[in-house]
Amino acid sequence: MREPRYKFKDVVLNDRLMTRFTDILRQQRRRDWLREHGKTPNRHLLFVGPPGSGKTMSAEAVAGELHLPLFIIRLEGLITRYMGETAAKLRLIFDETAKRRGIYLFDEFDAVGGQRTAVNDVAEMRRVLNSFLQFMEEGNSTDSVIICSTNHPSLLDRALLRRYDQVLEFDTPTSAQIKQLITANTAPMKIVAAKWTSIIHSAEGLSQSEIVRAADDAVKMAILDERKSVTTDDIVNRLQERHAMRTAFLDSESK
Ligand SMILES: Nc1ncnc2c1ncn2[C@@H]1O[C@H](COP(=O)(O)OP(=O)(O)O)[C@@H](O)[C@H]1O
Ligand SMILES: [Mg+2]
């Protein structure tokens, strides 16, 4: 469980996504009114998009906006070798969603739909997925919001995709978003004579998360140097460093 630290003002999203989140929040805030009219507020959401694009952060912002606790469930940690045990654990979680209103995030949900190498795993994953589908169908009277997030939508079952009220697609950042991310994450420090073209160029190919970290590192360095501002070079260097880390990671992975 996590007390939400974010609201949507902190999340850099395109207008299309923001409109959809606004709609989801509105349905949740006025759920009694919808119910009086025989309608159920949307509460099963699937977040799809590359790592570091703000899926977990957005789940936290939904919780923050609705003043609800956020529960993060890593399915990978739930899956055991013993038949039936995983489903029983899943049952406990879904029972909890009915008892305690909150935002329940099944993070990196693709583990369930994923291609596993071991045959036993495949069978167990199938079972987990089927239980999951069943649990999702039940309990339309609860007001908890269930969010699943995945980096690999192609691994997800069609049967599963149909269960969601909304599928929200996250994307790599646009130039305007890169600028927004860097401005927000260097504030209150100023960027002296910011050369946005070169900053944006250096940020291309990085995730929102990597860009935020690069901005944060540039600020830390300025603080340690006892400077009141950051420069274009500070930021560009930190962005390049993030690219290098990525390459190093890929190299060690392919060994
Ligand atoms: N769209 C975004 N707007 C602002 N910050 C972001 C965004 N996406 C990622 N971040 C930053 O990167 C961190 C990690 O992002 P996260 O939400 O965990 O990504 P994901 O769940 O998609 O892998 C966040 O805590 C935040 O600091
Ligand atoms: Mg995440």
CATH architecture level-2 label of the largest domain: 3-Layer(aba) Sandwich
The number of helices is: 12
Strand content of the residues, in percent? 5-15%
CATH topology of the largest domain: Rossmann fold
Instruction: Give the total of beta strands.
Output: 7
Please identify the top-level CATH class of the largest domain.
Alpha Beta
Parts with pLDDT < 50 across at least 5 consecutive residues: none
Query: In angstroms, what separates the terminal alpha carbons?
Result: 37 Å
Heteromolecules bound: adenosine-5'-diphosphate, magnesium ion
Give helix and strand order, one letter per element, not per position: HHEHEHHEHHEHEHEHHEH
CA-based shape: globular
Q: What do we call the CATH homologous superfamily of the largest domain?
A: P-loop containing nucleotide triphosphate hydrolases
What spatial order of strands do you see in the largest sheet?
A: 2-3-4-1-5
Radius of gyration: 21 Å
Into which percent range does the helicity of residues fall? 40-55%
Supply the number of structural domains. Answer: 2
Largest sheet, in brief, is: 5 strands, parallel
Backbone structural class: alpha/beta
Mean pLDDT: 88
